[in-house]
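Dear Dr. K.,

Following up on our conversation at the group meeting, I've run the structure prediction for LuxR family transcriptional regulator from Actinoplanes siamensis. I'm pasting the input sequence below exactly as I used it, so you can double-check it against your construct before we proceed with anything downstream. Let me know if the numbering doesn't match what you have in your notebook.
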Amino acid sequence: MTIIEEVPTDEWRSSPLPNSPAPDPGPVGVPALGRQLSHVARPHLLSRLDAWHARLTVVSAPAGWGKTTLLASWTHHQRGRAVWVAGGSRAGFWHRLTTAVATSTPIASEAAATADPADGPARLAGMLGYMSSPLAIVVDDCNDVANPDALADLAQVVRTSDGPVRLVLACRGTPALPLHRWRTDRQLVMLGEDELALSVDEAADLFAGQQVALPRLAIADLRAQMEGWVTGLRLAATALAHQAEPVQAPLDAGVIDLVADYLGAEVLARLDPQVRRMLVEASVAERLTADLLNTLTGRVDGAAVLADLQRQGVFIRRCPAPGDWYRLHPMLSRVLYREFTRHDRDRVGRAHRRVADWHRVQGPPVEALRHLLAAREWERAADVLHRHWPDITIGSRRLDVAPIVTSMPGPDPPAHVVLAMAAERLDAGDTASARHLLHLAEAAPDEGEPAASIMTAFRLATARLDGHLHRVCSTAAEILAEPAPESSAAGMLRPLALLSLGVAKLHLGQSTEAGWYLGEAQTLARQRDLDHVEISATSHLAARYAALGHLHDAVRTAGEALELGSRRGLGQLTDLSWSRLALAEAYFQWDRLDDAWCCADAALDSSCGHRLIQLTATILQTRIRVATGRLTEAHDALRAAHHESGTADLPAPAQRALALAEAELRLACGDPAAAHERLASWPDDAEPLPAQAAVVEGGVLLAEGRPAAASTVVAPYLTRAEAGTSLTCRACAGLVTALAGEAAGHRDQVMHGLGVALKVADEEGHRRCFAAGGHVVRALIESVAPTMSAYPPVIAALTATVDPLVAEAAGPHLPSHQGAGSSVTGTLVEPLTSRERTVLRYLQGTLSHVEIAAVLYISVNTVKTHVKNIYRKLGAGRRKEAVRLARELRLL
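The predicted structure tokens came back this morning:
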């Protein structure tokens, strides 16, 4: 591989960590990963770059998203099949490129000697015509190293070449190429900000690499505020490394200063001064449309300016919502607004007033309230609250909870003004400040209605946001018990009380009651045009449908909530995370694991510190990891969640869900004894998730070779006797019953259990519970398919999609391994013991012997003895060979 004139960018200007390994020498010119302050391995992106069928790959994102890092890592693995071109003047681009290709192979060098050096495209085309082995031309920072015409000529040469060549471009915006043609021919792979953004796990690895200790929830919040921006997270880690208590202020002024320096040099300095001034003024708004931008700045070309900035990769993105909404990256917005407030306070006030006036007409009213307070228009802000308080005082959470107003309007402000300030804090999720302001308002002279109702709504919302569910239930019940005319202020409290009570009941595991209250809240909200209430109620209804296994209703309802949030300008609401979790659960049960992971990730990004959302998403992602064989990652994620949940006041169903997830993971690892311990850790008289617990226990009993006990445990959940029983649990209970019947030789039991499971699969499309059983479930279905004429389509679909060799994909409910007392035949010298099979499952991952011993609570010497016995019985000489042979024997 040949690399010409690579000049390291700011992404690579860093010093090694103390005691870090020596830098990887690598090919000359390609940035060496060992020189990175912190390099995070990203195999999923490297696999995307390995798509050699695509002639063109474009990695497009603003500065600092890790484009160079990613491409350098990929180039290092190509071993002579790639040339790297970066740096230098535009005028010398073709010379550097053709020289790199010419020196890559002797044949290309001979062809280059006969070509015209002045004709770059023709010279390159001649060289590529002689090549028989694959070659990737990697152009880093293509915006700077080549002009648009040169890039177009290069792309055309690659497109028309007969040789196995591909082009990989890294750029800050959208390259001036006819990408639609490449896309139509299926010759294009695009990686953008969404793909390059660090996940929570990757962000955790980055912070660990810089020796910054942060709880996982704090990392998730910081990652959400940075939107996965690689350099932003690296700068945050650099700043936090010097703080004694980094968890207290993960995004303090020191971090903002570093981010401001970077953005100033890499983004803002490249802009036209007029465009920069426009962005500074536009930073007062959370989201922008062309009309709002024109209103703010007096321009008439707002639509063209916004579209052009996005094409240039200037940290501004178009929102996937009606109305052509755009938004600045949170960090750029914060940096620009800080610059704005330092220079001209009067101009800032005028900008806020313009935005407030625009939102008073266009909505949502809470945005008008925020900007009027920022402009110190106290009476107008109070008037907005007076008109729209039922939709404002629900309470939400925002990524930026800093107060928009830092001082009171005089020594004795009126109560209605203080309530307006409290409403803004409540909308930001800052319940501590909201309660303080509410206390000040209560101490003021009594202003009658609607102030009294507004204060009651505040108390209800703060209790819900703080997770005091029983207090929510009692307060909401008191409101609903008091009759009041619909048009009165007290009557307007009814939809808020219904919503709060429904949410509390849902989180307490009382799904039947929750459904009634949420449905009533949704109906009243629609009648009274309470958008925020309707969105929240609809989103929680979607979560309820998903929990009950009504997957089609969950997806439909979640879509309604997300669409309404986008249409009403309320897409940032934390409650919409429940819609994303509902989608994730449905996709998981449909065995669309990639879609499920993306939706769970989106829910984490918008959780804003909501522990229930974060825990639910973590549990779901753990199940996805188990389904894809990433047991070590699943164990690490659950261990972190268990550690951090110990300091939170979580409702009993959430705590039980975490315990059941741990039991499922132990079962998937082939350790039913440890799974039984997790199940037994909960008092029997206070079981909040009986059906789910029964299914997990049934799987454990099957693994222990006790089929009769397994069928007995799940028997109560095979019918619809209880309205709150999840269809997902019914399907799993049916499969447990069928497997137990097969083990006991009871044909009728097999037929009954499969009938229940297939009926659910036919109605709601469940696939994961079948796929989790691997070849065991497939063989069972095929053996009875001729006698089950009621479900031919679903049986055909299941037998076509369930891989008979994928025993490793055994899910937590239905282990595909044999019972503890059974022996393993085949080419084994002798059967593995139960404990040896448990250790064997952990050998699939990357855990060392010491780590496996810690997980299983046994000594390291015992682990080594088990591993030695496993190798002997399998006839293997090393770890990978043992895992391969075990999979061939269907032991994994």
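Two things stood out to me. The two ends are 40 Å apart (CA to CA). The chain has a mean pLDDT of 83.

Best regards,
J.T.
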